[in-house]
């Protein structure tokens, strides 16, 4: 599979800006420790929460307890947005990933994700049927989001907004 091609939005970019390469987006998603997950409650109100996530194999993965608001929202509407980036105004790259959250149940992928959570975030998870377990009282579903659309916001001259359509 070839790298997605970015399209610069000139209306939200500085003169002379160019589209950010996918490698910049991939690096940002791989190295980020915290993302902001946006879901929608059943009554239409938004819900946003910070959480760690792992980017691998073309999807962004996160976990949530079965009774948490995120899981309740996802049962009704799997469409999500995850964002990450920097708190700097004039440097870095902010990335927004839009797609559908799909529950991960395969043992091989869950095992790989548990390894990556330990390697990248120093979180220990045991793989159990249907998700992760941190201890006897805390189990979590794992979701993967294959991006349908990604926006990358380059901060600092030249400012840029690059759109990647993947789905």
From TrEMBL:
Pfam families the UniProt entry points to: PNPOx_N
KW Oxidoreductase (keyword) present: yes
UniProt domain Pyridoxamine 5'-phosphate oxidase N-terminal: residue ranges: 25-132
Signal sequence bounds: none
Annotated region described as Disordered, given as residue ranges: 1-23
Ribosomal protein found in the keyword field: no
Keyword terms: Oxidoreductase
Protein name per UniProt: Pyridoxamine 5'-phosphate oxidase family protein
Organism classification: Bacteria, Bacillati, Actinomycetota, Actinomycetes, Micromonosporales
């Amino acid at each position: 599979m070839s790298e997605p091609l970015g399209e610069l939005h000139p209306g939200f970019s500085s003169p002379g800006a160019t589209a950010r390469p996918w490698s910049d987006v991939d690096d940002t998603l791989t190295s980020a420790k915290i993302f902001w997950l946006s879901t929608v409650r059943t009554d239409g109100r938004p819900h946003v929460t910070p959480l760690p996530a792992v980017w691998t194999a073309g999807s962004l993965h996160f976990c949530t307890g079965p009774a948490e608001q995120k899981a309740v929202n996802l049962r009704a509407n799997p469409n999500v947005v995850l964002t990450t980036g920097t708190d700097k105004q004039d440097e870095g790259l902010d990335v927004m990933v839009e797609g559908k959250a799909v529950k991960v149940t395969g043992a091989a992928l869950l095992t790989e994700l548990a390894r990556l959570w330990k390697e990248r975030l120093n979180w220990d998870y045991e793989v159990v049927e249907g998700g992760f377990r941190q201890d006897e009282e805390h189990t979590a579903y794992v979701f993967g989001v294959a991006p349908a659309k990604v926006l990358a916001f380059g901060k600092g001259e030249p400012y840029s907004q690059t759109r990647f359509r993947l789905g």
